[in-house]
Structure formats: C-alpha cells, structure tokens
UniProtKB/TrEMBL annotation:
This is G-protein coupled receptors family 1 profile domain-containing protein. Residues 43-259 form the G-protein coupled receptors family 1 profile domain. The chain crosses the membrane at residues 32-53, 65-87, 107-125, 146-167, 202-222. The keyword Membrane applies. It comes from Ditylenchus dipsaci. It is found in: Membrane. Residues 234-259 are annotated as: Disordered. Pfam families: 7tm_1 (PF00001). It is a multi-pass membrane protein. Keywords: G-protein coupled receptor, Membrane, Receptor, Transducer, Transmembrane, Transmembrane helix.
Length: 259
C-alpha cells in the first residue's frame, strides 16, 4: 500500500504544474469554452428534437445512428462542463467535486466517448452497405436491426469501461495545492496496461482503420458509377450521328427520285 501512496504522490506532483496550466488556460479562455459548450449542447438538442418529432426521419437507420451520436455528445458536454467549471473557479486542476463522483465521472466520460466512436463506425458501415450493396441495404439496415445495433453498442461499452469505475478514486494528498486528486492507483499494473492496449485497439485503431477502408471503397464505387454514367452517354451520341446522317441521305435520294 505504501508503494501505491508513494506512486500517487509522485504522479500528482508531476502533474501539478500541468493541471494548473490547464486550469489557468481554461480560466483565460472560459468565455470561448463556455460558448462552444453551449453551442454544442444547443446543436445536439436540435438534432435530437428534429429526429424525434419527425416520424419519417425516425424510420431511417442513418438518422437513428445520428440521434444516438447526438445523445452521447450531449451527455458528454454536460459531464465535461461539470468538471471544468470548478477548475476554472478555483484556478487549479484538482478534484473539487464530491469524492464518490470521481469514479463515476471517469467512467461516464470514457463511456460516452467510446459510444460516439462506435456510432461513427456504425454510420460508416451503414453508408457502405447503402451505397456498395444497395440490394441488401433494405434488409441489413432496417430500423429494427439498427436499433439492436445501438443497444449492443451501449451494452458492450457499459461493460467494457467498468475498470474506470472500479479503479478510479479520489485521494487526499498532502504537500500540494489540490485538496484531492482523482486518479487510478493501479495504473502501473499489468492489468491496467493490458486493458489500455485492448481499449486502444478496439476503440481507436479498429474504428479508424475500418472507417478509412469503408469510405475509400465508397469513393471508388461512386467514382466508377459516375464514370460509367458519363462514359455511357458518349457512345450513344456518336452512334446516333451515322443513323441521322443516313436518314438525311435517304430523304434526299427520295426527293431526287420524285423529281
């Protein structure tokens, strides 16, 4: 236990300057941060209301995914605001909320971020199916299946991010300015290192690589379709010219014969 206490103090002292710098930076830019936060909250609320109040919009898989993305972003902005406001008020990067909120905040913040990332990945998959596989799109991207996909995303992430809730705590640390510090005393363990690598692979590397691959395929499919449409119209124009000329020549011959 002494090792963890020493480790926590060492980490806290090393991050003291960084936390204060972040807090002071937020304090100088609190107007910008608050304006962007309010704008983000307002925009996400508009998206949610627009989809919820329109029956036709609720029936498409893309709009359901967009609404899920807006919900996750909205709650993240609310959570983020609850964290940075005390930092700006006190001018320091410590933990000023009740101790029991420390693991809850870390858990909810990471959960909402991962839900947003997985929703972006689901949108990329849905767009790929709709454009590249249009015949199967009605079946694969039905409202019911998209709803189940959204439910699976939330359920998976809720379980996957549990280590944040279990391992993060608020600690009182003497000798530095912060009244308390919200952190993970087990961040140097093998379990946490393994978890972070798995989290990085599943939550960041996989969605980025998959989305880039899918959108690249979509681009080439649309490019080929566009090239086919414009390229197919040219031969028709050229093939029609001889027939038109032949008709004119035939008409001229008929007129000469009559004369």
């Amino acid at each position: 236990m002494r090792y963890f206490e020493k480790f926590a103090c060492d980490i806290a002292m090393r991050t003291d300057f960084l936390s204060d710098s972040i807090a002071l930076s937020l304090k100088h830019k609190e107007g910008y941060v608050s304006n962007f936060t309010l704008l983000g909250i307002f925009a996400n609320v508009l998206v949610i209301l627009a989809i919820c109040l329109d029956k036709k919009m609720r029936n498409t898989g893309t709009n359901l995914l967009l609404m899920n993305l807006a919900i996750a972003d909205l709650f993240y902005l609310i959570t983020f605001t609850a964290i940075w406001l005390p930092m700006v008020y006190y001018g320091s990067g410590g933990w000023y909320l009740p101790a029991f909120l420390c693991p809850f905040e870390r858990y909810i913040s990471n959960l909402l971020i991962i839900v947003s990332i997985f929703t972006f990945m689901a949108i990329a998959i849905e767009r790929f199916i709709a454009i590249v596989l249009p015949i199967q799109a009605a079946n694969l991207c039905s409202r019911k299946k998209v709803t189940w996909t959204i439910a699976f995303i939330w359920l998976f992430v809720i379980v996957f991010q549990l280590p944040y809730y279990v391992l993060y705590e608020s600690h009182d640390i003497t000798g530095i300015k912060e009244a308390s510090w919200c952190g993970n005393l087990y961040s140097a363990t093998f379990f946490w290192s393994t978890f972070k690598w798995v989290e990085f692979s599943l939550s960041y590397a996989l969605p980025i690589i998959l989305s880039i691959g899918l959108y690249t395929k979509i681009y080439f499919v649309l490019w080929r379709k566009n090239d086919f449409i414009h390229g197919d119209s040219q031969p028709k124009t050229k093939t029609n010219l001889p027939s038109a000329n032949a008709a004119k020549e035939k008409g001229a011959k008929t007129a000469d014969e009559k004369l």
